[in-house]
Design goal:
The protein has 198 residues and is mainly α. The chain has nine helices and no strands. Helix 6 runs antiparallel to helix 7 (115-128).
Length: 198
């Protein structure tokens, strides 16, 4: 009978992935499937996706037979990230003409000539002109909400009173007295005649 060490097994320390010098075909396909989707419908059918529909990183990895950990490590690499960013930029550039056509259609669309319709048309026009109009007609709206007690000019708050009344009011609030409380704050406006000079 062999005696085994009772010490718990140490977890293997995971090393950082080596820095990539170049991308393989699978690495490039991983990025391409995330941007433009997989063209093969049979491969993405188990995922419930259509051909050409963009995939997530893990879905792309599954289609290509790459482990999830390896795909995450690959996505953290600067070289792969740069390639993925270039694909996204190319995708954006390829759709600028279509987006511009949509903006023109929105700008020319007939509406009910309400404020919302005019706002949408103005926004579309400003997009075409590169926001030149939007910056000229920009208005800043400032809203301030006060949470303190507002004192309106013209009101006088009279806090004077004798000490006995204040003690009686305090005792009444604490339930120690049966005497009726007198008003502590009188908010009756004081009117001053401008003609009398008082």
């Amino acid at each position: 009978m062999a005696i085994r060490d009772a010490a718990p097994a140490r977890a293997a320390k995971r090393l950082k992935p080596a820095v990539l010098k170049e991308l393989t075909a699978k690495h490039k396909l991983l990025a391409e499937y995330m941007v433009t989707g997989c063209p093969n419908a049979r491969l993405v059918e188990p995922l419930g996706k259509d051909a050409g529909e963009p995939l997530t990183l893990l879905e792309s990895a599954w289609v290509l037979g790459i482990r999830a950990r390896q795909a995450r490590d690959l996505a953290s690499q600067a070289l792969w990230h740069k390639y993925h960013a270039s694909l996204l930029q190319a995708f954006r550039e390829g759709h600028k003409a279509e987006a511009l056509r949509t903006v023109v259609q929105v700008m020319r669309a007939d509406g009910e000539n309400k404020a919302a319709d005019r706002k949408v048309k103005l926004t579309a026009a400003s997009m075409l002109l590169g926001d030149a109009i939007a910056q000229q007609g920009q208005t800043n709206v400032s809203v301030q909400v006060g949470v303190g007690v507002a004192v309106t000019p013209g009101y006088v708050i009279d806090l004077s009173g004798d000490a006995d009344t204040a003690r009686a009011d305090t005792a009444l609030r604490e339930g120690q007295s049966n005497q009726p409380a007198s008003p502590v704050i009188d908010v009756t406006p004081v009117r001053v005649d401008a003609e009398s000079g008082d």
